Amino acid sequence: MQIEKILKDIVKKNDKKILLLVMDGLGGLPDPATGLTELETAKKPNLDEIARSGMCGLSVPVLPGITPGSGPAHLSLFGYDPIEHQIGRGVLEVLGIGMEMDKTDIAIRGNFATIDENRIVTDRRAGRIPTEENRKLVQILQEKIQSIRDVQIIIRTVKEHRLAILLKGRNLSPDVSENDPQKEGFPLKKVVSLKKDADFTADVLNEFLTTAERVLAGQNTKARAILLRGFSGIPAIEPFEKRYLLKPVCIASYPMYKGLAKLVGMNVIGGLETIDDEIKTLNEVYGDYDFFYLHYKKTDSAGEDGDFKRKVAAIEEFDGKISRIKHLKFDVMCLTGDHSTPSILRSHSWHPVPTAIISQNIIPDDVSSFTERACAKGMLGIINAKDIMYILLANSLKLEKFGA
Amino acid sequence: MQIEKILKDIVKKNDKKILLLVMDGLGGLPDPATGLTELETAKKPNLDEIARSGMCGLSVPVLPGITPGSGPAHLSLFGYDPIEHQIGRGVLEVLGIGMEMDKTDIAIRGNFATIDENRIVTDRRAGRIPTEENRKLVQILQEKIQSIRDVQIIIRTVKEHRLAILLKGRNLSPDVSENDPQKEGFPLKKVVSLKKDADFTADVLNEFLTTAERVLAGQNTKARAILLRGFSGIPAIEPFEKRYLLKPVCIASYPMYKGLAKLVGMNVIGGLETIDDEIKTLNEVYGDYDFFYLHYKKTDSAGEDGDFKRKVAAIEEFDGKISRIKHLKFDVMCLTGDHSTPSILRSHSWHPVPTAIISQNIIPDDVSSFTERACAKGMLGIINAKDIMYILLANSLKLEKFGA
């Protein structure tokens, strides 16, 4: 990002407080029956009031037309270029189930798979075994395999046939090939090193896979082997505090978002389950930080499930919580989403996301409704999500003049 | 900038004339009492008429959230990337007081400072001595120090404790360290070379500093030493005429803007004091050029002083001059600012700047008022200042088709 060439010279600390409210999967698409989006359908007087008193726009999560996963979408919101900083699939899997990860660890996504006596893969998902069966198998595997050549192997259930595996040790490398033949009817592959210094990691993984097959052979299950992919280490990301001179805190209940926040060096509050927990915490720690990232999950979950009504209800639920945030008097507040999750698409999408910024230093526009169509007419315009952070810093007077 | 990869192939000369009207620090923020910005408060029928007949938008000076100094803000308006072409602080100081600078010169910002008998800096600003005292000391220093090792030393008063110093000679380099310890209570440092070829420059500067201390020791003043910083040479910028095939002229009264125009190779008209001088000159030289940059300073000065009313008055004054510009029938006219200077912030700011373009080849939008909020709804949208130049060239039919 161009701004990285000058940020160090202009960023400064002060006592202003910034709140970033992220309603996951916020943006939607019209219900064909009514022609109205989820946001246009919801009764949300408090969100509308934020739009009315703020400056509104639409935020493009990554690039026009690009549908982001949670990782890139959040990196953008945190002011990092999500294309320059790609987070490995293994890392996201591991973060998503709440595992902690060190800089030298390698994270891997795994599948239980079915193979025949010739080690031909006959089902890459082992018949989607129940999560309970997965748990049982993982427990047995973990008992038998704790470390290989001084590399600690941590195996965890994700769900159904899916696993997360973490390697902890020295001289590990993510530059190894998958053992997955990608198609059924082909034999399991060996893991091979893709770069010189990855021979050791490949050896460890091949030994792990052979042992796992032997252990699984003794069990009554369709899971007869493990497929590995998404080998990745923690990306080198400049920590938030160093980059922005902010003391940041993440207030979220889902492991993935806590993990992403940790990746950029945020302090993460643990043990939160509900949005009420989150807002209570926000009130409690208000004095301790100057950047607050608060994450609301339900809008995305409902969208992913294709449940338009539930997404509307989730928006209304969050709307009802605003009064318990507003009295805190943040100097700068941004209400946005990480991406859109239209219920009719049942998935993340590329659509720009409604965004409102409140601060003493904005010109309030005439947008009076927090919806896709209304925000599109706001003064903030259609912006890149990765620029939002800098607009928030500017509004909190934390950026000095560039050049003379 | 991406356009630089194709500009040479498509730019062509014709007889169309472009006028760039820059109202310095144009954009503002609402007066809390009225909710209206300076532009929204001013009576400015002529500027509004430009908005009405033109295509309007907001211009982001450098990047979202970035508050630019005059240097980067103007480079953007002139179509250069202000982050790729950073202008040294010394160069801006020297240009700001109207000194001329050659390609091989090194410009330096200086402070008079107070030191004790152990050469510990006790006041980095020498008690902010009066400008008159500064002038007297500079005169004495300049008499005693005219050149060192064939390098001509030109010393000039800026104001209070501030100096500008220009080195003219061969084999000079800006890659030397400051002698400023940055904090009071620490001894003066030696200037040291930061790159191999800068040894000579460091030697010249150390000799200059020693001599200056000796000269100042004989004076009754708190100024007992000089601190140097911002060493810089003229950045390598492709001249306007070569880049755009335009014959450009700068019509401005303040040294800084004349200096910036000279940096990009504009012809600069001297001896102008007022906006009336400027407009008279514009009329006089209309036949001699095809690109006219006219700079109006008062909007920025009033904003910097936090004087909302005076900024409104400055806008109204400029509005009153438009009739003496309009009859000239420029083919393309752009009315904009280099950055915002909201009176309530008393400083430059990051806010996008109202911009209107008039040309035969635009689609007039329905913006009828030249204000921040109205322009935000214009067809030009929210654009980067550094793209404006290419839109002006296009509207004057000076850019041929790219590709077949």
Folded structure, characterized:
2 copies of one chain form a homodimer. Chain A is an alpha/beta fold. The first copy, chain A, folds into 2 domains: 2-86 and 238-395, Alkaline Phosphatase, subunit A (3-Layer(aba) Sandwich), CATH 3.40.720; 92-232, Alpha-Beta Plaits (2-Layer Sandwich). Chain A has 15 helices and 14 strands. In chain A, the strands form 2 sheets. An 8-stranded mixed beta sheet of chain A has the order 10-9-11-1-12-13-2-14, with helices on both faces. In chain A, strands 3, 4, 5, 6, 7 and 8 form a 6-stranded antiparallel beta sheet that branches. In chain A, helix 9 (255-263) links the parallel strand 9 (248-251) and strand 10 (267-268). In chain A, helix 4 packs parallel to helix 15 (385-395), helix 5 packs across helix 9 (255-263) and helix 11 (298-304) runs antiparallel to helix 12. The mean pLDDT of chain A is 96. At the A-B interface, strand 14 and helix 15 of A face helix 4 and helix 5 of B.
Summarize this structure briefly.
The structure is a homodimer of 404-residue chains. The first copy, chain A, is built from 15 helices and 14 strands. Chain A is of the alpha/beta class and 404 residues long.
**Helical segment count of chain A:** 15
CATH class of the largest domain in chain A: Alpha Beta
Category from helices, strands and their pairing of chain A: alpha/beta
Approximate helicity band of chain A = 25-40%
What is the molecular shape of chain A?
A: globular
The SSE order of chain A reads HEHHEHHEEHEEEHEHEHEHEHHHEEHEH
CATH architecture of the largest domain in chain A: 3-Layer(aba) Sandwich
Give Rg of chain A in angstroms. 23 Å
The protein's oligomeric status is homodimer
The rounded distance between the terminal residues' Cα atoms of chain A is: 22 Å
Average per-residue pLDDT of chain A, rounded, comes to: 96
Kindly report the greatest chain-chain contact and the residue count on each side: A-B, 31 and 36 residues
Give the strand order, joined by hyphens, for the main sheet of chain A: 10-9-11-1-12-13-2-14
What is the beta-strand fraction of chain A? Answer: 15-25%
* E-strand count of chain A: 14
CATH superfamily of the largest domain in chain A: Alkaline Phosphatase, subunit A
